[in-house]
Each structure stands twice: as C-alpha cells, then as structure tokens.
Input
Amino acid sequence: MSLTAYRTLGRSGLVVSPLALGTMTFGPGAWGADEPASRSIFQAYREAGGNFVDTADIYSGGESERLVGQFIKETGSRDEIVLATKFGFNGSASPLTTDASGRGNPHAGGAGAKNIHRALDASLVRLGTDYVDLYWMHVWDGVTPGEEIVQTLGDLVRAGKIRYYAFSDMPAWLAMKAATLAAERHVPGPVAIQVEYSLVARDVEGEHFPAAKEGGMGVMPWSPLAGGFLTGKYRREDLSNTGRLSGANPFGQSKFVDQNWLILEALKTVAEELDRPMAQVALRWVMQRPGVTSTLIGVRTTAQLAGNLAAADLELTGAQMSRLDAASAPTPGFSAALTAPAIRRMIFGGNDVWGWSDQGTRN
Ligand SMILES: NC(=O)c1ccc[n+]([C@@H]2O[C@H](COP(=O)([O-])OP(=O)(O)OC[C@H]3O[C@@H](n4cnc5c(N)ncnc54)[C@H](OP(=O)(O)O)[C@@H]3O)[C@@H](O)[C@H]2O)c1
Output
C-alpha cells in the first residue's frame, strides 16, 4: 500500500491517501517544527504521493494554518490537496496559545452557528483560500444541539465554503444522530470521525467504530503513536528529555502506565521479528484495523516522516495482527460485552448467527 492507494472518506466521493499529514507540530512551540522544517515535511509528504493535509485553527495559535496555506500556494497544489481544518476550541483563552490569561470570548469557541461562521472566515484568511475541502468540528462543546450543527455545516456546504464536514472528539451517539438527521433530511451529513486510536487507546472500538460504520463515516485515527510513546523511545526508568511527552504538553503524561509498558513489550517483539522500527509497526497496526480509512501522522522532523511513511509498504500478517490485538485488547465496555459471541449464542439458541454489521470483522 503506498500513499497513492487512494480511498474515499466514508460514504462520500472525497478521495484521500491512507496516511494524512497532521500539522499540529507546524509552527512555534516546544515540540513544534519551525517554518523551514515544516516546509520540508510538507514537501516530503507530497513527494511521497500524499494528498491529505490536516490542520486546525487552534494549532500554534493559527500559525499552522498560515504555513499550510503558504506551502500550498508555493507549490500550486490547491487542486490536488484535500485541505482539512477544524473549529471548536477557543482561541481567545486556550492553554495552547501564548496569551492565555483568564477568560476569553465565549463566542470564539464551540459549535454554535455564530462561532462556526466566525471561525471558518478566519481560517480561510489564514489558509489563503476561499474554501476548505473538509471542515472538522474539533470537539463537541457539550451544549449545541445536533440539529443546529447539521444545519450550520450543511448550509456551509451549500454555500460552497466547505466541500464536506466531519466530527472529531465527540460522543458516538452525537455523530450517529447527526448522520441520521442529515440522511432523513436529505442534506449533507458528516463523512468521517476523528478519534484517538492506537495500540494503547482502543476504547473507541466499543461505540465509535460501529457508529461510524452504520453512519457511513470513515474513521481517521489521531495520535497513532500515542504522541511518540509507541516509538519505544521512552524508558520507564528515565522519562526526561526524550520528546514531546517528557515536557509540558496538552496530553500530559498519561501514557506512562503499567498496561502500556506491557503493550510496548509485545510491539517490540513483533518489530524485532520484522526488523522494522516499532513506530512503523504501531502505525501499520492502526492502518490495518477494520474500519480505518486514513491515519493521521504527526512529525517534528523529515527523518521521523521518512521512517513513518515506510509503514505504508509494510504488511503485518494475520498472526502478527492477532498477537498485537491480544496484547492491547481493551476491557470490553457495556455495549461490546452485550454483543459478545457468547451472548449472541445465548440469544440464538446456541447457534452462531452472522449479521450484516459483522461484515469485515468475520468470515
Ligand atoms: N482531533 C484531535 O483532537 C487531535 C488531537 C491530536 C492530534 N490530532 C491530529 O493528529 C496528528 C497526529 O497526532 P500526533 O502528533 O499526536 O501523532 P503521533 O504519531 O502519536 O505523535 C507524533 C509525535 O511523536 C514523535 N514521533 C513521531 N514519529 C517518530 C519517530 N519515528 N521517532 C521518534 N519520535 C517520533 C514526535 O514527537 P517528538 O519528537 O517531539 O517526541 C511527533 O511529533 C496531529 O498533527 C493532528 O493533525 C488531532
């Protein structure tokens, strides 16, 4: 599989690469890449055949969007690139911005119509374009009704300011409700969900993956290397000065727990067997999981990018996948436990019954 092994994102005609370039690292910041480094990363991803670039209004206080827009302009590649950005977090009082002090404007965040229009107009200016291909709700605000979100984003599709929209970091029920509302109203609906997903973050398999499948939404994992943890560069005995997770970062140091160190051991064994870096194997495991459409990679250097892109040419055998699946198996949540094979056999008189929603997971 190369970066030109294109596929559509969810039930849509949007054609994307299996690895998308995340640009959260573009711009200033302790774990960021400066302008020349960001440009080199962008160019290397493009030269490898990638067409899917993901940014957000909040990344580096807007600098990531500005750099992405500039690189697209410099390379004249607007028509070839699927440009995705996000709204939702509040730029006026965010821990990610340097001027975070006290409270900000409540209208500068959230999924209400007022903020979405404001945020998109500001993003278009920074990106230097008059439309985005994919507009993500970065995070649900917990208050805006699904009806309003579908209405506002559908209107923006009809206005030609965005081509498609999708949801990141939201409850599965909300994504499914929006998809259902849109289908019933015959208006544009969400085409994808973006969730944290890796060997050490699998709880989204319980509700989000089935919702995405039922709702015609592609799954786009973020932090497939758990912020760098799955590269194997962190040592349990000494966590200092190794990378992003060693210092202050919005994701904290939550990866350093007993269970994850055990998963890392299993990953190391498979990587040694294949004579490949752990990062490639971890990334490839995400790419090969059923339901995953395009995986977001994040890098700080071109060397990291080159190493990680090689995951596109790696193939894990069924046995290797199974070993990694078993080592990282999440505790089944309520829904997953209810739909376990043993319960289904109880329901169907001891028979194994294979349903439509099992397609792709059983044969
Ligand atoms: N929707 C959301 O809420 C959300 C949240 C997070 C991210 N995202 C998106 O997902 C993208 C990827 O997320 P992520 O950056 O967290 O992904 P990740 O792949 O889990 O972590 C990337 C980081 O790991 C380290 N790394 C990567 N490859 C490496 C290698 N080969 N060797 C050693 N270290 C390596 C680098 O950090 P250091 O070198 O600094 O240690 C790099 O910045 C982001 O750019 C963004 O577009 C979305």
